[in-house]
Amino acid sequence: MATKHEQILQHILSLEIGHKISVRQIAKALNVSEGTAYRAIKEAENQGIVSTIERVGTIRIERKKKDNFERLTFAEVIKIVDGQVLGGRQGLHKTLNKFVIGAMQLDAMMRYTEAGSLLIVGNRVQAHELALNEGAAVLITGGFDTNADIKQLADQKQLPVMSTSYDTFTVAAMINRAIYDQLIKKEIVFVGDIYTPYDQSLFLYTKDTLERWYTLNEQSAHTRYPVVDDKARVAGMITSKDIIGKDKNLRVDKIMTKNPNAAQEKTSLAYVAHMMVWEGIEVVPVVDPSNRLKGVVSRQDVLKALQQIQRQPQIGETIDDIVASNLLPVEEDQTVFQALVTPQMTNQLGTLSNGVFTALMTEAGSRLLRYYKKGDLVVENLTVYFLKPVSIESQLLIKPNILEAGRIYAKMDVEVFSGKKMVGKGLLMAQLIDR
Known about the structure:
It is built from 15 helices and 23 strands. It is α+β, with helices and mostly antiparallel strands. The chain has four domains: about 5-60, Arc Repressor Mutant, subunit A, CATH 1.10.10.10; about 65-185, HprK N-terminal domain-like (Udp-n-acetylmuramoylalanyl-d-glutamate--2,6- Diaminopimelate Ligase, Chain: A, domain 1), CATH 3.40.1390; about 190-305, CBS-domain; about 320-435, Roll (Thiol Ester Dehydrase, Chain A). Helix 1 (about 5-15) crosses helix 3 (about 35-45), helix 12 packs across helix 13 and helix 14 (about 320-325) packs across helix 15 (about 355-370). The relative contact order is 0.07. Pfam families: 4HBT, CBS, DRTGG, GntR. This is DRTGG domain-containing protein. InterPro entries: CBS_dom, CBS_dom_sf, Diverse_CBS-Domain, DRTGG, HotDog_dom_sf, Ser_kin/Pase_Hpr-like_N_sf, Thioestr_dom, Tscrpt_reg_HTH_GntR.
């Protein structure tokens, strides 16, 4: 039977897109406390099925598909520009296909304005009206208001008319940045993208005997399984080490490992990979916020996803991407690397930022290990014990040196030079992932 929390989420999913939601309304409709309703609405917001906007409230929105991250809803736009809604609240859930900057003559502006677009314009009432009639939403910059007729038309068309205190070009830059951030998020793989769901997972109940472990082991050849109670909450994990020498009629909860490591759907692939390497485990349970089992993620799932990521084209560029693209091997020595300090790699003082400095060291160390076919690394600790400011446009030489490298562990010394002067030195310790 579904919990009250799950019932509320199912109720929210059943509501029409654009429906306004309140804690009091949900509590009254489903006969639950306002605290329970509030927590469920927050969870719905985390899942991307509702959006809360200041001075407007919470509305039901369409869950964004992973392949549609380059688009924003008008509800997201109003948050980005810290604006207010003047009219057409019922259309906040809609998605904009493109935005048009209204810094041109009216007839030229209208040639670019079409249904599903957003016109970013100042205090030009005629432009507001024409855009709404074309099926476009309007964002008024400079903190201006608009006429009552325009607000009424927005309500009729169910297209938002919004206002922000920022100027037109600042707003365009903010929206562009938000879309770019979304594209970067799109490339981050989460456990929720790869895990095996509950109805396809193998697990034991606390009341089962060890006989059940042997049955599952024959089916899957896995040696590690989650253990759940009668409410499907994860109570522990049981492995082959736990059952050695034990009677097959012994109950699972007598020998299981309690409080095991677990992941949630929003846990990143990188984190769970690190957990598996660090703890030496092959299966991790995936749980919801109330610790109910939602499925499992295995080492094979993680490795398959990592291989898939390497084959995917890159859309958004992070600082690590900039570092990787700027770091090149020195022609005469493939174990020494060079990099140019670009403007994106600097801090507000125009010198190489500390974060980029450590990223350069880590990337150089990782490439050296791959060169010697030792595998990829997961950094455990990086101690920088010498650091000097490095100015923009400097050419760096990075020399990683392997001090120790075993099957699952590596220790490296990394030196960074600008010209003939040493500007950085660090000790890197990492776990290795076999390729």
